[in-house]
Structure formats: C-alpha cells, structure tokens
C-alpha cells in the first residue's frame, strides 16, 4: 500500500527556471538599444557626414553611386539645354556654325561630356569653344561642385573603411567572469587580450554594473549603472596590453557585491559591462571594445588557466586556453562575512599570544620557589608577579 501511495505521489518540485535576462550590451559589443519615436529627424541632416558614415554598407554604396550619377545627369541635362537653346542641335552639319560644345549631337553626348568634365578625363572629341560664355560659367561651376562631391564622398568612404570599431574585432574578452580569492580577498575577475601584433596605445579598462534598483522614495530605475573599481585609484586600470591580462575587481566595502554570497549572487539579476578603450597604434584613432557578463556567466570558485609560456627567447600566448577556467577552493560566504571572520581570527591571535606568555612566566616563577631571583619580582609581558605571601605558601 505504501508503495502504491509512493508511486502515485508527486515527485520533488523542480526549481523555477530563471527567465533569460535581456542583454543591455551583446557579447560582441553591440548595444541592444533602439531609438524609437524620434520626431526631430532633421537633427540627423545637420550632421550629414556622420549620418552617412553610420549607414549600413549597402545604403552607403547606394548613396555613393547616386551622388555621382545624379550629378552627372543634372549637368548633362544643362549642357543639353544650352545646346538646344543656342540651336546647336539644328546645325550639326553646318561647318560654318560654331557650337557651344563640339560634337555634342544629343542628350547622350551631353551626358558623356558631363562625365568627362567632372572626372577630368578629357578624351578630346567633345570640347567647349570660346564662343559660349554660358558654357564657360557652367564648366567652372561643375568643376567646383564636382570637386566638392569627390571630397565629401571619398571622405565618407575612407572614414567608413577605416573605422576603429573594426579594430575592436581583434580585442577579445573571456566568455566568463570568475570569483575567487586573491591575497585572501574575494575578487571578481575577467580576462582581456589583443590578437594583433600592433598594440593598443594608452589602453584603459572600465566596468559597469547594470541592474534595476528602487530608491527610498519609491522611484524605479530599470537600468541603473554603478561603477566597479578595477584599479582607477592605483592606476591598474591603465593597461600595457601586450599579452592577455586578468582584470580584477576587489570586492571590498565600496563594492556593490560586498554582501553577496555565492547563493545570493546566483539569485541576483544583473549584467556587468566591460569597456576597453585605447588608440590604434597604426592610425592613432580611438578604439573602444565592449562585452558583458550575465549572472549565469559569472563562475564562483574558478580561476583562469594560464595562457603564457616561456619559450626559447620569447613568450608564447596560447589563445586556445584563453576562455578556460578551473575550480579552486573558495568560501561561499560574502566578502563581508569573510572579512569579519578574518578580523575575529586576528583578534583571537592578538589576545591569545600574551595569555600564553603570561602562563609561561607564571610557570617559571612557581618553579623557582620562594627564593626566586629578582627576575620574578619584575613585571613580565605587562603582568605583575604574584604576591610574596602566595609564593611563600
């Protein structure tokens, strides 16, 4: 009967699954934020250059082609109108007639002449004459405007090709962050590396904690940002990024993880955004690489595997082990509880050492008897010697 009841009794309840948190910053550094209901769209046109650079490649190429094609068509139509208005198209076979542009016999010829003028090709078959003042003015105008279009479009394409965010693709972050002891203190750590031989100059690292909070007045802040110290006060945030480095955030009283134990950390809901900035050595342009870690990407009680080995005359970095970690003994309590336990241990040692010295002094005094030397009558270790009546007894 008991077996039947056990068979029909419900099993142990499964723990509720954590709902996946929406990332604020993707692992590849893209910010997962979209601007919606922007009514003042004219602001984008006030900075047209940046707007064109920020466009996707297919739109940039389309705008690049249209800018030249429309300019050529526009001036080609004007050249054709000049020829049509002067009657050049009606005197094509008249050798005594001096046209505005030689050998311009239609719209296609006017379009080709516009391309030759703006690109300064100059094949020599179609050429402007000195009997057309309006053509001379148009030639100057097209030359100036064509130079401006060339400068603008070539500049946009050059900046887009040499954007420093492409350099950020070779700056890598570890797939997980770890929490373990360093010099007796709990630390949150992650690793960064540079895959290129050309280095990042003046590299610096920052870390932000993103999580919701509610103020004392009841205001809810959905994506509150808190700085995580990674050595700003000591200068450790400025990196010499030649080989992979482990960035450490010491969990002290100023850290938002000061009272977070392992269990509390697993139940928490946050995102850690790390930002690496520096100048590209080859171009001098500022580069920024970003990544993030969710709660389930923070491993408690782990440490990073070493990737640096000494070879014959050089150091070798093994990036195959860049993301690997291994478990190490780590207390599950919070950093605050660990500090309090260490303080109690230090206090116990501080008071226990004088007590043991006092006991040793008393044993030496009782062994010497009543005729003990003057050494027993002196104070030792801050304690008075026993009275004479007690020593005589």
Automatic annotation (TrEMBL):
Location in or out of the cell: Membrane
Its cellular-component GO annotations read: monoatomic ion channel complex; plasma membrane
Marked site (Role in the control of polyamine-mediated channel gating and in the blocking by intracellular magnesium) residue numbers: 150
Listed A to Z, the keywords are: Ion channel, Ion transport, Membrane, Potassium, Potassium transport, Transmembrane, Transmembrane helix, Transport, Voltage-gated channel
Q: Where is this region: Disordered?
A: 1-23, 359-393
Q: What is its main location?
A: membrane
Q: Which residues form the Potassium channel inwardly rectifying transmembrane domain?
A: 25-164
The record's listing under PANTHER family reads: G PROTEIN-ACTIVATED INWARD RECTIFIER POTASSIUM CHANNEL 3, INWARD RECTIFIER POTASSIUM CHANNEL
Task: Provide the assembly information.
Answer: Associates with KCNJ3/GIRK1 to form a G-protein-activated heteromultimer pore-forming unit. Interacts (via PDZ-binding motif) with SNX27 (via PDZ domain); the interaction is required when endocytosed to prevent degradation in lysosomes and promote recycling to the plasma membrane.
Family per similarity comment:
Belongs to the inward rectifier-type potassium channel (TC 1.A.2.1) family. KCNJ9 subfamily.
Protein name (database record): G protein-activated inward rectifier potassium channel 3
Q: Which organism is it from?
A: Orycteropus afer afer
Classification lineage: Eukaryota, Metazoa, Chordata, Craniata, Vertebrata
């Amino acid at each position: 009967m008991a077996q039947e009841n056990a068979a029909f009794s419900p099993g142990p309840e499964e723990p509720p699954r954590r709902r996946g948190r929406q990332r604020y910053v993707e692992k590849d550094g893209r910010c997962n934020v979209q601007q919606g209901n922007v009514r003042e769209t004219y602001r984008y046109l006030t900075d047209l250059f940046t707007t064109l650079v920020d466009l996707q490649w297919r739109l940039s190429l389309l705008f690049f082609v249209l800018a030249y094609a429309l300019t050529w068509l526009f001036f080609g139509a004007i050249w054709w109108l000049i020829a049509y208005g002067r009657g050049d198209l009606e005197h094509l076979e008249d050798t005594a007639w001096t046209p505005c542009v030689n050998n311009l016999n239609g719209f296609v010829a006017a379009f080709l002449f516009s391309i030759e003028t703006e690109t300064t090709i100059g094949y020599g078959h179609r050429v402007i004459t000195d009997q057309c003042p309006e053509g001379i003015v148009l030639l100057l105008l097209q030359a100036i405007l064509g130079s401006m279009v060339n400068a603008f479009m070539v500049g946009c394409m050059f900046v887009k090709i040499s954007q420093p965010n492409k350099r950020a693709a070779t700056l890598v972050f570890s797939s997980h962050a770890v929490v373990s002891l360093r010099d007796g203190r709990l630390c949150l750590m992650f690793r960064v590396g540079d895959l290129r031989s050309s280095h990042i100059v003046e590299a610096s690292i920052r870390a932000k904690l993103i999580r919701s909070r509610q103020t004392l007045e009841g205001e809810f802040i959905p994506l509150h940002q808190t700085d995580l110290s990674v050595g700003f006060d000591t200068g450790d945030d400025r990196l010499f990024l030649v080989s992979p480095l482990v960035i450490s955030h010491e969990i002290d009283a100023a850290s938002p993880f000061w009272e977070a134990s392992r269990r509390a950390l697993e139940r928490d809901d946050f995102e850690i955004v790390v930002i690496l900035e520096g100048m590209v050595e080859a171009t001098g342009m500022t580069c920024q690489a970003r990544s993030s870690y969710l709660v389930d990407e923070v491993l408690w009680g782990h440490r990073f595997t070493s990737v640096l080995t000494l070879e014959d005359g050089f150091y070798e970095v093994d990036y195959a082990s860049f993301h690997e970690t291994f478990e190490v003994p780590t207390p599950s309590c919070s950093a605050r509880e660990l500090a309090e336990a260490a303080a109690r241990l230090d206090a116990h040692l501080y008071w226990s050492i004088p007590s043991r010295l006092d006991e040793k002094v008393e044993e030496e005094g009782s062994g010497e008897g009543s005729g003990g030397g003057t050494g027993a009558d002196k104070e030792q270790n801050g304690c008075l010697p026993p009275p004479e009546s007690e020593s005589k007894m």
